Amino acid sequence: MHQEFGSGRDPLGRYYTDPSIGQAFVSLLDRRHASSILDLGSGGGSLTVAAAQRWTDARIQTVDLDFGAEENIRLGMASAGHLAHSHLVADVLDENLPELIGGPLFDLAVCNPPYAKIRWRDGFARILSEAGLADLRAVPAEALPSDIMFLAQILRLAEPGAEVGIIVPDGLISARRSRAVREALLRRVRVMRVVQLPRGSFRGTEAQAHVIVFRNELGRGEDVDISNLGANGVSSPLSISSSAAEARMDYGYYGLRTATTGHRFTLREIHADITRGSLSSSEARECCDPVFHTNGFVQADPLAYRLSRERLGQDRLGRRIAEPGDILLARVDRELHRKVCLVIEGRAVMTDCVYRIRVPAMWRSSVARALMSANGQAALVCASRGVGARMLNKEDLLDLELETA
Ligand SMILES: C[S@@+](CC[C@H](N)C(=O)[O-])C[C@H]1O[C@@H](n2cnc3c(N)ncnc32)[C@H](O)[C@@H]1O
């Protein structure tokens, strides 16, 4: 199997679901009776064991490529007292998976797949078309990570009307680049609900993820319920239209919109000019002029930020300078949502980890205050991506919904 990972990541994406989330996960599914359950990428069985406890009479099929997972899942199923279980050690991305599993189709599936970039294989075209997702062949192969291919395999193995609960990464639910995938999914299946999970739901990663619950029947533009799993359980759902769901389906975004009370605007609507700084870290170290980087957001009054009054040396092509009237915001940082300031004095050359936001003078203070408010910070967290160090894309910043006080 060819997977490309950044260093330090588990090559099989073995970030197991916390057992308490497994219990909450199965409670999100509607089906009262299930006769056969499928779990692709079952790992040690956090989802399967919870499913076995809820649907005690069901026949359960688990599949995982990791030999080490087999013993754990057998032990978990034995302790749940569930005997109607078979486990297969196999590659879920194998186009012949239905033949390897054999037997009738499933009426329920649970899944927490690995989230990884995978190289395109010839068999994927067949998998997508037999899953009814042939439209996805038009999207670039890099937009089809392992979670989408797992989902396609589930659809090949699910009977019409089967209910599926799958844990997917935040990018699939909210990123602009995944819009074509969301559109294809909303046409192919009937998405019932999307539930945002708390960070820390998986061992070994802080990744943000969501559960999508859908039925294996064609989507007909129905509304989608979205909610949030928190310390007090699942929040009351908000209903969003199918076209809103194509744009994004995360509760973090829509929940915030309904909670706002002031005048809402986006930086795009007010024609903000957003520029990313230019200096790399090595250029910043060698630069003789005052430099502004993400470690510079330290002054007590972020609405009256004073940069150095030193004169800058001769302007060099491509250098991006911050000056009075500019709002500065960290572009890359673990705490970027807290790193905002409005410059009232001085100048500095910006590093490429900082955005400069220029808006008409009448808007400056409102925009800076809106970004610094609790809702603004929450919107920045929601719009930024990444585990650990977070990164904010310029297009997402332009579309961030802000609210005047
Ligand atoms: C994110 S873990 C989830 C495990 C378990 N379902 C849970 O929720 O705790 C993904 C699982 O997929 C398995 N996996 C990764 N790539 C696979 C592949 N190509 N075929 C089968 N299993 C795979 C890993 O071994 C791992 O157990």
Keywords for this structure?
Rossmann fold, 29% helix, Adenine-n6-DNA-methyltransferase TaqI, Chain A, domain 2, binds S-adenosylmethionine, 24 strands, elongated, ten-stranded mixed β-sheet, five-stranded mixed β-sheet, disordered N terminus, alpha/beta, 405 residues, 25% strand, 2 domains, 14 helices
Structural commentary:
With 405 residues, the chain is an alpha/beta fold. It has two domains: 252 residues, Vaccinia Virus protein VP39 (Rossmann fold, 3-Layer(aba) Sandwich), CATH 3.40.50; 139 residues, Alpha-Beta Complex (Adenine-n6-DNA-methyltransferase TaqI, Chain A, domain 2), CATH 3.90.220. Helix content is 29%, strand content 25%. Strands 2, 3, 4, 5, 7, 8, 9, 10, 11 and 12 form a ten-stranded mixed β-sheet that branches. It has a five-stranded mixed β-sheet with strand order 14-22-18-20-16, covered by helices on one side. It has a three-stranded mixed β-sheet with strand order 15-21-17, with no helix packed on it. It starts with a strand and ends with a strand. S-adenosylmethionine binds next to α2 and β3.
- DSSP strand (E) fraction? 15-25%
Q: Give the helix/strand class.
A: alpha/beta
- Helix % is 25-40%
CATH class annotation of the largest domain: Alpha Beta
Number of domains: 2
Bound ligands: S-adenosylmethionine
**Inertia-based shape:** elongated
Q: Can you summarize this structure?
A:
This protein has 405 residues and is of the alpha/beta class. 29% of the residues lie in helices and 25% in strands.
